[in-house]
Amino acid sequence: MQTNIEPVSVFPHTATKLVIAAVQVRQLGEGGQAFAAWQLFTADDKQVQSGGVEISGSEYTAWGEDDTYILNLVVSKLGLTAVP
User: Fold this and answer.
1) 43, 73 in Cβ contact below 8 A?
2) Helix or strand or coil: residue 43?
3) E strands within 1-84?
4) Vertex 1 angle, CA 28 and 39, to 5°
């Protein structure tokens, strides 16, 4: 999954795209937990930063079957803004 983002400075580059590289479910059910691995890329597809976001509790429950929810959640947790 990926989305364009408002440009953000990642010294010494500017990232314009967020990619969710993988989502790993660590625990199923009511106490579910997952981990989303993300990467930031420049306009010319150079990776400039990566990391991960924990998803648990109500965030995990709200996920359901809508993977765009994960993309939007990661955008929000990283303080980014998605653009069309």
Assistant:
1) no
2) coil
3) 2-10, 13-27, 33-41, 47-56, 82-83
4) 95
Q: What is the pLDDT of residues 25-63, one digit of tens each?
A: 988 877 789 999 999 999 999 999 999 999 998 999 899
Which pLDDT belongs to residue 29?
75
Report pLDDT for 8.
98
Note the pTM of the prediction, 2 decimals: 0.91
Asked if residue 84 has a cis previous peptide bond (ω within 30° of 0), the answer is: no
Query: For residue 56, what are the contacts with CB-CB under 8 A and spacing of at least 6?
Result: 31, 32, 33, 34
Cβ atoms of 55 and 70 within 8 Å: the answer is yes
**Domain spans of the chain, in order of start:** 2-83
- Side by side, the strands of the sheet bearing 2-10 are 47-56, 33-41, 13-27, 2-10, 82-83
